[in-house]
Amino acid sequence: xxxxxxxxxxxxxxxxxxxxxxxxxxxxxxxxxxxxxxxxxxxxxxxxxxxxxxxxxxxxxxxxxxxxxxxxxxxxxxxxxxxxxxxxxxxxxxxxxxxxxxxxxxxxxxxxxxxxxxxxxxxxxxxxxxxxxxxxxxxxxxxxxxxxxxxxxxxxxxxxxxxxxxxxxxxxxxxxxxxxxxxxxxxxxxxxxxxxxxxxxxxxxxxxxxxxxxxxxxxxxxxxxxxxxxxxxxxxxx
Length: 238
Hints:
By secondary structure, this protein is α/β, with parallel strands linked by helices. It has helices spanning about 30-45, 55-60, 85-100, 115-130, 190-195, 220-230, and strands at about 5-10, 25, 25-30, 45-50, 105-110, 135-140, 150-155, 160, 180-190, 205-210. It has 2 domains: about 5-140 and about 175-230, Spore Coat Polysaccharide Biosynthesis Protein SpsA, Chain A (Alpha-Beta Complex), CATH 3.90.550; about 145-175, no CATH class. The protein contains 6 helices and 10 strands, in the order βββαβααβαββββαβα. It has a 6-stranded mixed sheet with strand order 4-1-5-9-6-10, with helices on both faces. The model has no long low-confidence stretch (mean pLDDT about 95).
């Protein structure tokens, strides 16, 4: 069983310049994900491919002993470029360069670092035990529910519940929904062979994390996470 681990970290970031290597509690953000990839990769003798267009990010990765000749194409490093396309390009490069056909591809997001080895292991076991699945991704229980307390605006300016048809009187009555937290995705080889355009398919699984997880999209997210780390408020070790 061959596994490829991809880490996509482009250099450009409008919201937080240089966020992929910004220090988080004294350590570059990239190092949290790369170190986890190296630990999980040891279990399965996986190959790791960092997809970036930035020499600064490559230099940061080298601090953990990682190097690569791969460079993400400019067309896949813009604000409008899709991540699936970037992963696909890395997968094609890896299969050609390492002369291996990968049964699974694990993508780990730099800006969503709250994950554990157990998370990865349990999710991997779940997707491997479901042969018809194309992928599995990490999620958390959603704070809002489209069947109960999320609305969308109609053309006439009035609003209605997003998932209409049944009037639930409490969120507990409504179907369970989840937030995709972007921390990690396992893809089967068929996902890329079939050229799936997005990560949500009719054969996707979800791995529900039992701990907090969120994207670092804004400067205050870094401040919040640092405070949580320093005050031992996280329910996960990173």
